[in-house]
Each structure stands twice: as structure tokens, then as C-alpha cells.
Design a protein that fits this description.
With 90 residues, the chain is an all-alpha fold. 67% of the residues lie in helices and 0% in strands. It is built from three helices and no strands. Helix 1 packs antiparallel against helix 2 and helix 2 runs antiparallel to helix 3. The protein is elongated, with a radius of gyration of 14 Å.
């Protein structure tokens, strides 16, 4: 029986995958820390992390031969989020 699917694992040994996870995590923590210096905004953290990681994943799918494109998508999203604030998961 053939098993098919569109899922792509995040392999930690691939440098672009490590960059995506660590950069999205670092930026999400920084945004939440700047947004609420007193209390941790957990939904805001997850929304920011998901938006950053999703921008990287879409870039990875659109241009799979160049991991730099996906990294640039994550960086551009971080800059946009800095100007518009925490994204909404809806």
C-alpha cells in the first residue's frame, strides 16, 4: 500500500530548519517581552511564533531549492510584526 501525504518533517540536522525554529522562537519571545514587560502573554507568543514559522514554511514550499528565500520570509514577517503588533490567529 502506498502512503502519500504533504507533510514535511522538521529535521533538526538541516541548518535552515534549525534557523526557522530558533529564529521564530527568539523573535516571538522578544515581541512578547517588549509587548508586556510585566506578564507573559502566552496567546500572543503562540500567535507570533506561528506567524513567523508559517511565513518560513510557505517560503520553503514556494521555493524549495533555496532555503534563503524561506529565511527572508521569516525576517520580513518579523519586521512587519514589529510595525503592526501581535497577529491574530483567527
Amino acid at each position: 500500500m502506498t502512503k502519500s501525504g504533504l507533510g514535511r518533517p522538521i529535521v533538526w540536522s538541516v541548518p535552515s530548519n534549525r534557523f526557522a525554529v530558533l529564529a521564530a522562537l527568539a523573535v516571538a519571545v522578544a515581541f512578547v517581552a517588549l509587548d508586556a514587560l510585566v506578564e507573559l502573554d502566552l496567546p500572543g507568543f503562540f500567535a507570533t511564533f506561528f506567524a513567523l514559522f508559517l511565513s518560513w514554511a510557505v517560503g520553503r514550499e514556494l521555493d524549495p531549492d533555496r532555503p534563503d528565500t524561506a529565511a527572508m520570509g521569516l525576517i520580513v514577517t518579523a519586521v512587519l510584526l514589529a510595525s503592526i503588533g501581535t497577529p491574530s490567529l483567527a
